[in-house]
Amino acid sequence: MDSGYAPDLLLDAYAAGVFPMAESRDAKGVFWMDPHQRGIFELDRFHISRSLARLIRRETLEIRLDSRFGDVVAACAERPETWISHRLEALYRAVHRAGHAHSVEVWENGALVGGVFGIALGGAFFGESMFSRRPNASKVALAYLVDRLREGGFTLFDTQFLTPHLASLGAVEIPRAEYRRRLTRALEQPADFHRQGAVPRGQSVLQRNTQTSWRA
Among the CATH numbers 3.40.50.1220, 3.40.630.70, 3.40.190.10, 3.30.572.10, which is that of 7-215? Predict the structure, then answer.
């Protein structure tokens, strides 16, 4: 696959339940992942700790959407070992230009300090990667992302794998067969990443999260 020039192939892969990874930053090709256990966030069970809630409530961090998508992807790839190759990075940029890839960015004093990016398809959002340059910045980005997905009509938030970091925020694993069932339903759902409109105040995000967690 020439991953730099095939955004439609990537979207077809996600719709089929698989996703790409590369062996290194300079890798020329990709391999397709279809794990037996899939990490997801139940959108009504995202966990915001007291310390994270205090940080969001202070609103000292600015949240932006899609303003520096390419910089978020590049920051996520800036690690000693990364699965985001240069070709995959170019592919994500192409999917973003097509309107299917989005970033939630955390800014502090004019500097990009954290963020998360992923791909939206129907009512499914496929989280790709996140980064932090200050404590808890990626958690703040995830809190705003989960709120936006709920408000936008999404029903599936795929995290691909379950890590201890994601588990601390409420992510869980489900079997491949269950994931495929949820994916099929989600792809049929009308959803819109921008339905929520402008970035909401932090207090609103916290209130909605408390309400959905209580209902769950």
Answer: 3.40.630.70
Give me the residue spans of the domains in the chain: 7-215
Q: Is the pLDDT of residue 4 over 50?
A: no
> Which residue is listed with tokens 């920051």?
75
Q: List all residues 6 or more positions away from 200 whose beta carbon is below 8 Å from its beta carbon.
A: 147
Residues 105-164 pLDDT 10s: 999 999 999 999 999 999 999 999 999 999 999 999 999 999 999 999 999 999 999 999
Distances 168 to 106, 139, 152, 177 between C-alpha atoms, Å: 20, 10, 24, 24
Residues in CB range of 22: below 8 A, 6 or more apart: 3, 29, 30, 31, 83, 84, 85, 87, 88
Q: Which of 183, 181, 141 is CA-nearest to residue 165?
A: 141
